[in-house]
Each structure stands twice: as C-alpha cells, then as structure tokens.
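Minutes, methods subgroup
Present: GH (chair), OT, SY

1. OT presented the first of two proteins processed in the latest run. Sequence and structure tokens recorded below as shown on screen.
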Amino acid sequence: MRGTSTPGPRDAKGPLRRVVFDLHGVLVGHPLPLPGAPAGEVISRLRAEGVAVAFVTNSSSSSASDIIRMMADVGVEVRPGEAISAGGAMALYLREHHPGARLLLVGQPGLRRLIAEAADAPVRWVSNGDAADVVVVGRAPGLTVRELEEAARAGRRGALLLATSEDASFLVSGEQVPGPGKTLRQVEHAMGVSARIIGKPDPFILMRGLGLSPEQLRSTLVVGDSSIDVRLGVRAGAATVLFNAPAEQDGPTPDWRIERLEEVLELVGRTK
C-alpha cells in the first residue's frame, strides 16, 4: 500500500463508517480480472464488518436500477438507495431547483427518461433554443450542428447551462470511451457561458443524491481512479483513495493510493 508521507486528515476525523465506490475504472471496465480479491467479496466483507457502502458514477443515463443490474452481472450486490448516477443527480437537481423550467436537452434518451421520471409534473421539453430556460448537457456522441445552434440561441437569451459531468472519457472493457467533456466544451463555447456541473466532483451527488449529511461524509471514504473522484471527496469533506491510478495526476493529493481493492478493508480497519 502506498500512502501519503505525512499524517492526513483521517487523524482528526475518526473511524470510517462508509465507503463510496466509483464504478468505471474501479469496479467495472477492466478487460481482465484485477489481481487480488474480487470486488463482490470486498464489498460483502465491508458489509459484514458493519461498514455502509454506496456507488456513484458519472454516467449521464444510468438509473439506479440500471446500476443494480450492471453490478449484479459482475458479482457485486447493490441495494436500493445505495447507487446514484450523474444523470440521476441531474434529475433530482432540476426537480428541486428548476421545477417547471423549459428544458433544451443535449444528450441521450436515457437522460431524458431520468429527468421525466423524477419530475413532479410533466417536463416542458423544447427544441428551440429561443424558448429554453435551461440547457442540459449529458453524453452526446452524435452531437449535431443544429443542436449547437439551438444552444447558442439559448445562450443569447440568458439560459442556464447545466451538465452531468465534464469527464473526457471513461473505461469500458479496457478502453477509454469518450465522455460528456468534449460535448460540454462545444456547448459552452456556443453559449458563451460555463456550465454548473451536477455530477462528480460536485458534492450534490453525495449529499442529495445519496442523502449523506456533512457528519456522515466526515466518516466516509471515496474510492476512485481519477482526480475527479479525489476532488469529490475533498469538496465533500470525506477521505479519499486513488485505486490503480498513475502516480502523477493533476488535482488534490489523495489520502491514500492502493493497487488492490481489498486494501480498502485494511484502511477501514486502521481507523477503528
């Protein structure tokens, strides 16, 4: 295990009572099994020791049910209420902060479905930027010139820009697949504004998406494979672990680095 060379914030925060796992690059996405104990075994052992677990992903279109099914396929049990995606967080944010707003979507049908299912009333979708109050951006590999033109029109009339994430890519079967980042940069340029990110690294996905209080977050460990996951933990006041990641990454320094998932068990046990 490779830890920080000086005492970290864990010294003042007490025991770790919850572990939040990123999905792609940590629990899924690898072409071959990683060395060490399987993810399902590690998570089962955490539960047996009384440690709560949760799962977050910057997927723009995965529902909690989608996550439960996907993880079951790789031998990981995810229970209702334990999982949230950036798309799910976006749906919740719109319901809480922009009910009834006219939405212009730059994204896939899955994100539209999440937003519609979470809304308290029928969503007011628009395709004309001149009518939009909010432009919502998710992963859109088929982004068209027309969509950028409508986003630009929305920007000229002062529409708000929200995005599920700014991830450049994510790991699928050992390969990096383009994420929403490129689409977002193009939409930001077209609208002339910067987006509010609702998924990681914004703590909203933990505090409202998973319902964790500041006190609960102080005893939480965020396990991820990128600087975005570390930034999430730091901004939420949680401890952080970089898993199987390059030594040099931009952004804040994690509390620990690990190469095998079962090392999480040791970290949790060390803080008891």
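2. SY then presented the second protein from the same run.
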Amino acid sequence: MKKTSSILTVTLLVLNVILNPIITITSVYAEEEGGVEVEYSSESYDDSTDQVYVEEPPVEQQPPQESVQDDSGAGTGESYEDNGEGETIPEEDTESSEPDESEESDESEESEESEESEESEEEELYPVTGISFEGVVNNNIRTGSTIHVPVRVTNSEAALEDAVLRYTISRDYIVPYDSLSSYFPNNGGSVEAYYSGDQLIVDYSLETLSEEYNQLLTLALKTKDDGTMPNGATISASAEVIQNGNTIAQSGNVNYQFVTRQPHFSTNVTYPSETGTSEDDDEGPARETTIAYSFYFGDEGGGNGSGQSAVTNLTVTTEVPESLNFDASQNEGWSYNDGTRTATYTVVPGDDIYSNGYQLPSPFNVTSKGCEY
C-alpha cells in the first residue's frame, strides 16, 4: 500500500514539472483597432502541502485608456471602457451629467426673452381716442349769427375704423342748410343731418383714424334771424366719436348765449312859455313843459346776425308829478290814468326802426298847477 502511494506521489511530481510551463491563465482584453493585451498569472503546486499557488505578475502603471467606440454604437456618441473582465461597458459622460451653469443661464435668458417677445406679439393694442372743444366763442353772440362748434379729435396706439363724429344740438333756433356740405365748410367729407326729438343730429364720417390722428373739425350752424330769437336765447351742443353705434369718446356740453340789440331812450325837455329852458328864472317858474321822446337800438353782441327782435309795437309810459297837470287836448295820442297819474303812448314802428331809430310823433305836454294863460 505504501509502495503504491509513493508511486502516485512521484507520478504527480513528474506531471507538475512537465505541465508547469503549460498551465497559465491568460486574459484577453479588447483594445482599439483590434489590438489585444495579454495578462497572465502562473500557478504552482506544493506537493508537501497539496496546495496550488497562483503568482500574479507585477502591476505596471497603465496610461489612461482611450475610449473605444463599438461599431454597433457608431454615431450614437457612446464610449466604452474595459471593466477588467474582458467586457466593455459604456463610459459615463461626466460632462453631460454635470450641467454648465452659464449655459443654463443663457438658455434661461433666451427663454425669457422669447416668452416676452411672444407676449408682446400676442398683446393686442386698442385705439386711444379723445375729443374736446377748442377755441369756442360762445358768449354775447348776436341773434341770427352763424356759430362755430370746433372740436379736436385725436387717436393713438391703434387705428380706429368706421369712426363717425356726431354732434347733438338743440334745434329750436337752428336753420337747416339746403346743402349738407355747408355744415363743414372747411372740411370735406360725408355728412348726414336729421332730427331726433328736439335735437338736431349731424354725423360727419371720419372713416379710419390712424394711430397718429390729430385733427380740428368745425361744425357751422346758422341761427334764426327773423326776429323770433329772443334776447338771452341759448343753444346747447355736444360731440362724440362713435363706431358702429358705440360711443368711443365724448365731450362735455357747451352752451352758446345770444343777445339782441337793445333799445335806448332819450328825452328832450323844452319850456315853450319861457324865453329860456330853465325851470325858474326872472320871469318866475315855467308854466308849460314839453318832453319829446326818441330811441335807437344799440350795437350789442358780436357775429354776423342782425340781433333784431320782432318789434310789433312800442309803448312809452311816464308818471305825472303832483305839481303838474295833464291836459288831454294838448297830448294827441296819449292816454292818462288819473288814479295812477301815468300817461301812456303806444305806436307801431316802421321796418326801419333798427337802422334809423324812432321818435314819438306827439310830444308829452304838462302845465304847472294854477298857471293862467
């Protein structure tokens, strides 16, 4: 039995010596362009202990390995490296995994600018339209005059299409024109005029107002000059810009005040029974007094109207003092009220009363009480 064991031991030693150079372990690593790197280790057998020893070669400092692109990943931007076990694994893109703060900031700014630009493009602009009276002369206007209603219309930001300038005027003392163009003698354009209740409506087509529209537009109105317009008459006017029946801008109201030419009286007193015109002189107090009445119309108001009222009659009333007597025989056309001691004269003047004035045809005569002729 011992002999057999010795033979087996010898046999193993012989085999170890023979096979030792052959028994090596190699590892093949895929390298760029088909190159390989061979790394080996050797094993030895210790017959005394029945153990196998592996001897590793010394580790040399290897230069940084270049990433190798697999043909199957060509064009994909992936890189691979050896994992030490003969396999290639994708190399992590450390640059892409760590975002560049400056790039993120630039992208954020560009994104914000793009959003602002889109918001600006999407924001819709609306017209900003204004209207106001300008240079209005509306006081102390003579009746029958042509009045002017100037308004300034402005527009900005965006165009306003189908715009209409509308005037609303109290119609009582307005004379309508035969030609619609007479309402805007200084501005051409389409005009429409019509009545609505006690108002005159005048529409002037503005068509499209541009973003920089700024225009003064003046409406002309002829007032009645037939004597029916009284002193103190008023005409009210307002203006607005409308679009498709909707008010876009509106002014306030302006009132035009009218006056008529007013009569002014004058008197001329004489003393027929005296050599002079004094009431009291060397010959004693005057025994008879004569008063002549006349009047004329002033030139009140401005404008191109006549300022005339319809004068149908003229009445003069005077009070007789207690110290004087009224004698009807000496006062043709005069009437006298003894209870109120007032004398009255009424006359229908001619058509030229405003141009030539008027003097009563019969003067007023009174005498002192107790006078004897």
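Chair's summary of item 2: The chain has three domains: 1-56, 128-259, 263-368.
Next meeting: continue with the remaining queue.
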